[in-house]
Amino acid sequence: MAYVFAWEDGERLEMTGGDLPRGWRILVDPRNTGSGHLSMGNQDIPAGGGIPVHRHEKEEEILFIHEGRAEIEIDGRRFAARAGTTAFLPVNVPHGLRNSGDGPLRLVWVFSPPGYESVFREMAARNLDHGAIEDRLGLGRP
Questions:
Q1: Mean pLDDT score across all residues of the chain
Q2: Which of 19, 63, 127, 138 is the most exposed place for a label (fewest CB within 10 A)?
């Protein structure tokens, strides 16, 4: 079955812990659409907020900056990103980002294979950010 989603559609998750609250929308994954090869969603990060440096032991990730500005850290290197920027993150490469603009940062994420979206669900349920959640779930950290 095919699906079409608007930005605000999907499974909404919120995390109030971490440096600043943020949330995710899971649009495509095995649970919501039956996708067997990837998961995809979007995220709004408030000004000054970010995603702590972490890595994925099984999934490749693509981040696409839809709106706003960010500083992306990949394997210890920093890159300026603006709307239209894409970052490809191989398995086990430490990465994180910070909203470097004055307004919200809107990004799209894609994982292959699917699976890491389950960590987002745990982060929201336990109100734990990257780092703390990986420790609790026994996942790798940089």
A1: 90
A2: 138
Domain ranges of the chain: 11-137
pTM above 0.85, yes or no: yes
pLDDT digits (tens, 9 = 90+) for 61-74: 999 999 999 999 99
Of the chain, the end-to-end C-alpha distance in Å amounts to 38
Quote the pLDDT of residue 75. Answer: 97
- CATH homologous superfamily of 11-137: Jelly Rolls (2.60.120.10)
- pLDDT confidence of residue 123: 86
Q: Residue 117's CB: how many other CB atoms inside 10 A?
A: 23
> Is the alpha carbon torsion for 4, 84, 19, 56 positive or negative?
positive
Q: 79-111 burial, b for 16+ CB within 10 Å, e for fewer?
A: eebeeebebebeeeebbbbbbbbeeebbbbbbb
